[in-house]
Write a structure and sequence with these properties.
single chain, about 270 residues, alpha/beta, five-stranded mixed sheet, 10 strands, about 20% strand
């Protein structure tokens, strides 16, 4: 046997060993534990940073604060976009269970969140991130001198409420029951912003909304606190959705909401800590 032929098996073994190392490295980079995601709508690049569009379904009362956080998110992760769908929590939950594409759901009550979790559409357990209290929104300057929930029952006063199927309406019903009052509004609105708008446009004399909405109105209405609101404080849960097309983006948005920066924005809007 020649010297060359004796070395051939060693070179062959060395080649097999190198190939095995390459295969192992490839397996490590492609398994789910590596945290890498796809591009575009699926989110996440080679570094695990979110990409693409994150679709967030959120209660109408979160509009101002979440819009601010959305801009922060897009600035922090260049190339991303946060697309919001704000509305009544009940209609948003119905949309999600009906198959509407969304990555995150932030509800204004545990009851409406339960619609989503019962349908098996949540990824993990929803967590309460803020709380909110009711407040009366009166016309600018409060010309009707409204100072209590009882004042809303006065004859001739045009009052609008949220529909009882949405969280602000259910909370209002709880507050009225706690006070022993009965109130017949001129209209029921499908989300809290619609109720507030009626007062801003002077189509109603008052509405029962959230304190955050009164603050967001920026002086267009007069806020009136009432003690019965303590009986109807709403918890706001948030969750990543099971069929999220952008899972990494959803996780990053939830992390921002629950961060110190997120709490600061929400606190400035008038939300309470859980």
């Amino acid at each position: 046997m020649t010297r060359t032929s004796r070395r051939a098996p060693r070179r062959l073994l060395a080649g097999i060993g190198a190939a095995a190392v390459l295969l192992a490295a490839g397996a490590c980079s492609s398994d789910g534990s590596g945290g890498t995601g796809g591009s575009g709508g699926s989110g996440g690049g080679a570094t695990g940073r979110p990409t693409g569009t994150v679709t967030v379904f959120a209660a109408a009362s979160l509009q101002e604060s979440f819009t601010t956080l959305g801009k922060t998110f897009e600035k922090r992760y260049p190339g991303t976009k946060v697309a919001f769908n704000f509305g009544g929590s009940d209609s948003l939950a119905a949309g999600i269970t009906g198959g509407a594409p969304a990555d995150v759901f932030a509800s204004a009550s545990p009851r409406t969140m339960k619609t989503v979790t019962d349908a098996g559409d949540a990824a993990g357990t929803p967590a309460t991130f803020v709380r909110n209290r009711l407040e009366i929104a009166a016309l600018q300057g409060n010309p009707d001198h409204i100072s209590s929930l009882k004042d809303l029952t006065r004859s001739g006063l045009k009052v609008v409420l949220c529909a009882e199927t949405v969280p602000c309406g259910a909370a209002t019903r709880t507050a009225l029951e706690a006070s022993g009052l009965k109130l017949t509004p001129v209209s029921y609105e499908q989300d809290v912003k619609s109720a507030l708008t009626k007062v801003e446009l002077k189509e109603a004399d008052a509405a029962v909304v959230y304190r955050t909405d009164v603050k967001a109105a920026g002086g267009k209405v007069e806020g009136v606190e009432f003690p019965e609101s303590a009986e109807a404080v709403n918890d706001y849960p948030i969750v990543r959705l099971k069929n999220a097309e952008n899972a990494s983006g959803a996780k990053a948005f939830l992390a921002l909401v629950n961060s110190a920066e997120g709490r600061k924005v929400l606190g400035a809007a008038g939300f309470l800590t859980p």
